[in-house]
């Protein structure tokens, strides 16, 4: 049984909480990028000091450099329940998605269809939508304009034998509702379509077992999961080896190189193993046993339990104010702690006022322009977004609620 998260131990693993320049400030823009954990910083520094050479050569520094890069891919893939070569790194999730879209454009036939949503961050919908200019059909799975909810029954009406791919977010970066990935994936697979899930907004709240959940592609960003600025992509072998190679021709037999045309960032890939170090330390501290997948599942539940408990008071505060429109569910168990509030004035203006109270938050459209427009919100005015992760504590939430009282 999963116990209670030791948040003091967690915060001790993040140097930002020891930084004098950040003292007294509560960080509520984690959806834009999280603090980096100590093992990642230490690995990155060590790589630049000791291993900053071309990797995979026989001399010692190079051999160790290559081993650390391989270690990152091997350990993270084990946590996510997939084979090591089914996980690859790219410069960003946006870039990874663009490369995938080019591969699908070469693989599909004119008249084939792709389904996208208007709940997404633009990075997971724009590259797919552009395929309409090349003779492919793009169908939009629309959100409910009041709630922002994606109804799987609406997806069923869009599926037929022409659909090759269904793209949707694990959760939206403004609506926050956690979409039922397993159910949606099963619907798409039953219709003969592959599935691409944008996990950028969900992964900070716990790495998921992609192998068990079933999507063919799962993408997220390491800089939002306590790591360096890298995009991480899982693509299952059955699909990955069908799609045309986008890398060097002589690497086409290597799955993890097929969709990374740019040269890898050696140091940042090696430093990504620090994320696995952090999660292993977290599991050991909390007495969590089992193999990589089992430990990861328990950590996911531990982190989510802490976040849900902190999130509900913020949701209750927002839904009870007439001047505030809370986007997404009011039940913390149904969503990630990414809370967008539509207000009578621009979200960025309110974020500026909150900064005077030691609250670090953001305002704007957050590249979710289509979602905001669908919900009747002017992207130019945007929303105030308040987002946190498992290292946030109750005192910071109280600080936020007091600041909102003053600023609203």
From TrEMBL:
Give the Gene Ontology MF terms in alphabetical order.
transaminase activity
Pfam families listed in its UniProt record = Aminotran_5
Domain Aminotransferase class V, residue spans? 27-400
Keywords of this protein's UniProt record, alphabetized? Aminotransferase, Pyridoxal phosphate, Transferase
- Protein name listed in UniProt: Aminotransferase class V-fold PLP-dependent enzyme
Biological source species: Roseovarius pelagicus
- Supply the source organism's classification: Bacteria, Pseudomonadati, Pseudomonadota, Alphaproteobacteria, Rhodobacterales
């Amino acid at each position: 049984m999963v116990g209670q998260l030791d948040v003091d131990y967690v915060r001790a693993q993040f140097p930002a909480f020891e930084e004098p320049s950040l003292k007294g400030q509560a960080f509520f823009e984690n959806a834009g990028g999280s603090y980096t954990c100590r093992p990642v910083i230490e690995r990155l520094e060590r790589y630049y000091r000791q291993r900053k050479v071309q990797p995979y050569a026989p001399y010692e520094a190079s051999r160790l450099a290559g081993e650390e890069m391989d270690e990152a891919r091997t350990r993270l893939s084990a946590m996510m329940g997939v084979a090591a070569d089914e996980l690859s790194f790219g410069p960003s999730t946006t870039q990874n998605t663009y490369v995938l879209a080019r591969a699908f454009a070469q693989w599909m036939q004119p008249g084939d269809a792709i389904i996208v949503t208007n709940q997404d961050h633009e990075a997971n919908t724009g590259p797919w939508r552009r395929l309409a200019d090349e003779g492919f059909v793009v169908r939009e799975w629309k959100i409910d304009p009041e709630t922002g909810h994606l109804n799987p029954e609406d997806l069923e009406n869009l599926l037929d034998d022409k659909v090759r791919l269904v793209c949707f977010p694990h959760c939206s970066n403004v609506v926050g509702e956690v979409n039922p990935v397993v159910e949606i994936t099963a619907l798409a697979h039953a219709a003969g379509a592959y599935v691409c899930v944008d996990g950028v907004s969900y992964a900070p709240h716990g790495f998921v077992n992609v192998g068990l959940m079933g999507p063919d592609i799962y993408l997220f960003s390491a800089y939002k999961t306590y790591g360096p600025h890298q995009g991480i992509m899982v693509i299952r072998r059955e699909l990955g080896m069908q799609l045309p190679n986008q890398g060097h021709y002589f690497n086409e037999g290597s799955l993890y190189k097929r969709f990374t045309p740019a040269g890898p960032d050696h140091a940042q890939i090696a430093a990504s193993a620090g994320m696995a170090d952090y999660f292993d330390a977290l599991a050991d501290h909390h007495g969590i046993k089992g193999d990589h997948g089992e430990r990861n599942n328990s950590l996911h539940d531990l982190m989510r339990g802490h976040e849900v408990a902190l999130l509900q008071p913020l949701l209750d505060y927002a839904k009870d104010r007439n001047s505030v429109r809370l986007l997404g569910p009011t039940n913390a168990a149904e969503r990630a702690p990414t809370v967008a509030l539509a207000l009578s004035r621009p979200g960025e203006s309110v974020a500026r006022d909150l900064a005077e109270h030691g609250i670090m938050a953001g305002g704007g459209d957050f590249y979710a322009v289509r979602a905001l427009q669908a919900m009747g919100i002017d992207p130019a005015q945007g929303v105030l977004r308040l987002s946190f992760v498992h290292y946030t504590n109750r005192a910071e939430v109280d600080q936020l609620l007091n600041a909102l009282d003053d600023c609203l």
